[in-house]
Design goal:
It is a single chain. This protein is mainly α and about 150 residues long. It folds into two domains: about 1-55, no CATH class; about 60-153, no CATH class. Helices cover about 55% and strands about 5% of the residues. It has helices spanning about 10-15, 20-25, 45-50, 60-65, 75-80, 90-95, 95-110, 115-120, 120-135, 140-145, and strands at about 30-35, 40. A two-stranded antiparallel ribbon has the order 1-2. Strand 1 (about 30-35) and strand 2 (about 40) form a beta hairpin. The longest helix is centred in the last third of the chain and has 16 residues, at about 120-135. The chain is flat.
């Protein structure tokens, strides 16, 4: 059985993508999607295999999918301009193996579980403020209105 001609950009799919995701998982767990000009892996296990496969090492944008995801510019500018935060986060996202482990050791005290728990009240305050603004609006685009301000890259 083949999938009907759909796209992630079809209005019905945009409104509720979950039935389409289920079709992809069932019919084509790895599917070429022309609208992305790339492949879409629709199951956790497949994505996990890809991420562990040395043929798909991080590095150049053409290897890791960044050409399909536009970084949130405002978040980048804030992070890189801040004298305290200004650590080049891209060093972590673009490294592999031992080099990646060394970067992780550097940032663990600041970004690890314990550090995050210590910052939880401040983070919750920011979340409450953003949600307060969202409540005043008739609509909410979750990525643009809520998630994007918290991205690192």
């Amino acid at each position: 059985m083949s999938l009907p001609a759909k796209s992630l950009l079809d209005p019905d799919v945009v409104q509720c993508p979950y039935p389409y995701y289920e079709e992809l998982r069932r019919e084509r767990p790895i599917a070429f999607l022309p609208e992305l000009n790339g492949y879409f892996a629709s199951s956790y296990e497949i994505v996990r295999q890809i991420l562990r496969d040395k043929r798909f090492l991080k590095g150049a944008a053409e290897n890791d999918g960044r050409k399909f995801v536009t970084p949130h510019k405002a978040a980048q500018e804030i992070l890189l301009a801040d004298p305290v935060i200004g650590f080049p986060i891209h060093c972590i996202s673009q490294s592999n193996g031992e080099e990646h482990s060394q970067f992780r050791k550097l940032v663990e005290p600041f970004m690890g579980r314990k550090a995050a728990m210590a910052r939880e009240p401040a983070i919750q305050s920011c979340v409450d403020a953003v949600l307060g603004e969202i409540e005043k609006s008739d609509t909410c685009e979750i990525v643009a209105d809520f998630s994007a301000p918290y991205t690192f890259t």
